[in-house]
Amino acid sequence: MDTMTLWHLTGWEFAALAFAALLVGFSKTAVSGANTVSLAIFAAVLPARASTGILLPVLIAGDILAVLTYRRHAHWPTLWRLFPAVGAGVVVGTVFLVWADDAVVRTSIGVILLLMAGVTVWRRRQADGEGRPDAAGQPGAGGTRAGRVKARSYGVLGGFTTMVANAGGPVMSMYLLSAGFRKLGFLGTSAFFFLIVNVSKLPFSAGLGLIDGRSLLLDAVLVVFVVPGALLGKWAVTRIDQRLFERLVIAATVVGGLQLLLP
């Protein structure tokens, strides 16, 4: 069956979705948070609520490629601190989706992302001159009370935003940057984090009717474009220094937040 006809897509609309899928692959292996642009494209071309269910398998394909690329650099103590809070956030996000309309969802997440970007910029300036982790990403303060509170706060926000709009990337990017992760540790930890979280979201999304046979048919076509995006990201990340990497992640978060706030 022709997926363009099934979803009433024009050639330009399908090209936009293909570009968004390519950008998902790039964001997973290079600049995490950049896939908020993909989120905006999917929501603009497809019905906003349905777009979250269609985008999820595309994100999982990118997560798998990212894990294969950066699996040696994940920092599991950080992941174990985050998962309980993220699970709570996913449940809250599921309840929120039952009654919230698209406008409320977009505005809420846009505000959260901009606040997280502002807090992270402030915290990074405060932390200048302090010790930073090595390339494998070893956080320094995760075991303190303040570190645990921060992990829980970001975890709940990340679970909430990833459930309601697949927009957890920028929130977790802000957490990992604020924790002092460098490039490879950042990418390896976020790769495993989002693979596990996104796969766990599948039954919730299916239960809400966001994933069905029609959406999976479109996904089967779009995931093809994730692979070249991931390869491009792997090539680009070795050519981006740490300071530029952090600025790109924060910029992508701000752009994503602004896009969600625009009508």
TrEMBL record:
PANTHER family: MEMBRANE TRANSPORTER PROTEIN YDHB-RELATED, TRANSMEMBRANE PROTEIN YFCA. It is found in: Cell membrane. The chain crosses the membrane at residues 49-70, 82-99, 105-122, 184-204, 216-237, 244-262. It is a multi-pass membrane protein. This is Probable membrane transporter protein. It comes from the Bacteria. The lineage of its organism: Bacteria, Bacillati, Actinomycetota, Actinomycetes, Kitasatosporales. InterPro entries: TM_pro_TauE-like, TSUP. Its main location: membrane. Keywords: Cell membrane, Membrane, Transmembrane, Transmembrane helix, Transport. Belongs to the 4-toluene sulfonate uptake permease (TSUP) (TC 2.A.102) family. Pfam families: TauE (PF01925). It comes from Streptomyces plicatus.
